[in-house]
Every structure is written in C-alpha cells, then in structure tokens.
Design brief:
By secondary structure, the protein is mainly β. Helix content is 0%, strand content 47%. The chain has strands at residues 7-9, 15-19, 25-29, 32-34, 42-47, 53-58, 62-65, 72-79, 85-86, 92-95, 102-113, 128-132. The protein starts with 6 loop residues before the first strand and ends with a strand.
C-alpha cells in the first residue's frame, strides 16, 4: 500500500510531518495536521525461507513530491522492525522469522513541508529492494 501523510496545512514557516511505521503521525514547525484517518505507512511484503537473510534498501534517501506548488522532499524512510531502523540506499540485513517464509513490513517517512505550501494533492515514487542472501 502507498505511504500517505494525510491532510496538512502549511504555515508561515517550514515544518515536517512524520508518519511512523506503526501509523502514528506527528508534525513540527509550521505544519498543522488535520483529519485523523487519512494517513498510513507504506506496506510491503516478501517471501523467502525461514531463517533466510534479506537485505532491504530504499531506491533513494530523498524523493520529491510534486503537485500544484513547489516540490516537497520526503526523507528518513523507516522500516517497522524491532526496533525501527532507518532505510537508506545501503542495504540492511534482516532474518526471516516466519516458518512459512512470508513476511510483511511497514515503511514510514518524513515529509518536509515548505512555508506557505500551495494546497493540493502531491505525489511521488520510491521503491524498496529485497535481496535474498
């Protein structure tokens, strides 16, 4: 599923909106959160073997969201592991714990909202790479 930061109102100063892997959403600076049920982390899944190592990485450390106003950046991609871990273009190694080999994981991130950001829908793309070891 897609990563969704929900509805945000920008202020006179820049701010940030973070959606954590567990689905919680916070704002700092000039970003104001509105709505309660429209935000959620991205969802990914994979399949391997029990106890197999998987290297997980993100396509870019920062992506641009484009829309009716100035582009905004999304940074600090976090995978919902225990504890959560910062995903970068450098792969992180995880071990598949499920006896069936199936696994799924959420990914959250931080949206950097510009001061006086134009209202509208913004979108961008990122991908997750799984390398089975």
């Amino acid at each position: 599923s897609d990563l969704n930061f929900g509805r945000v109102i920008s202020g006179a100063t820049a701010g940030q909106v973070t959606v954590a892997p567990d689905g919680t959403r916070t704002a700092t600076g000039g970003a104001v959160l509105i709505g309660n049920n429209e935000h959620y982390p991205a969802g990914f899944a994979g399949m391997g073997r029990n106890n197999q190592n998987v290297a997980i990485s993100v396509s870019s450390n920062a992506i641009l969201l484009t829309g009716p106003g100035a582009p905004m950046t999304v940074t600090n991609f976090r995978i919902g592991s225990t504890p959560t871990a910062l995903l970068t273009i450098t792969p992180l190694s995880f071990r598949i714990a499920n006896s069936t080999g199936l696994f799924n994981f959420p990914v959250g991130a931080t949206l950097n909202v510009n001061a006086n950001q134009a209202a509208g829908v913004y979108s961008g793309r990122f991908s997750i790479t799984l390398n089975y070891l």
